[in-house]
Amino acid sequence: MYDIAVIGDRDSVYAFAALGLHVMPAANREDALSILSRLDLTKYAVVYITEQLASQLEDELKKYDEARVPAIIPIPGISGNTGIGAASVKRCVERAVGSDIIGNAD
After folding, report:
1. How far apart, in whole angstroms, are the C-alpha atoms of residue 87 and residue 67?
2. Contact 39/5 with Cβ under 8 angstroms?
3. Each residue of 3-57: pLDDT tens digit?
4. Of 17, 83, 3, nearest to 46 (Cα)?
5. pLDDT of residue 104
6. In angstroms, rounded to a whole number, what is the distance separating the alpha carbons of residues 16 and 18?
7. Is 71 strand, coil or helix?
8. Which domain does 36 fall in, by range?
9. Which pLDDT value is given to residue 86?
10. Domain at 41, CATH number
C-alpha cells in the first residue's frame, strides 16, 4: 500500500499530519532537494509539494512527469496560490485527454 507525502514550509504542511500524511518540512530549495533525493519511490504514490518550492524545483520535478509513481502535485502554501498547481493539472488533463477541456487555468 502506498503512502502520501507533503513537502513544504512547516506552517503549510503540518496540518496534513492530522490526516495521516507523511509531513516533510523543507525551509528552502536545498532542503526540498535533499528530501526528494532520499524519498523511497516505492513507498509514495502521491507527493504534494507547495507551489513556492515547486517553482524552485521545476527542472528536478520534470523527471517525475512520465513516472507511474509518485505523482508530484503542487499545492498552495500558507503564502497563497500562485497558479502553478492549476497549470500543472491543466497540462496533465491535456496529456490524458488530448485536448484542452479545462479552458484558461492561467
Report:
1. 19
2. yes
3. 999 999 999 999 999 999 999 999 999 999 999 999 988 899 999 999 999 999 9
4. 3
5. 65
6. 5
7. strand
8. 3-81
9. 72
10. 3.40.50.10580
Q: How confident is the model at residue 57, as a pLDDT?
A: 95
Tally the residues of the chain.
106
Q: Is residue 93 part of a domain?
A: no
Cell of 25: 518540512
pLDDT tens digits, one per residue of 44-94: 999 999 999 999 999 999 888 888 889 898 998 887 777 776 777 777 677
DSSP secondary structure letter of residue 66:
T
Does residue 76 have a cis bond before it (omega within 30 degrees)? no
Neighbour count for residue 70 (Cβ, 10 Å): 22
Q: Which three cell numbers stand for residue 35?
A: 528530501
With a CB cutoff of 8 Å and minimum separation 6, the contacts of 28 are: none
The DSSP H or E segment spanning 10 is: helix 10-13
Domain count within the chain: 1
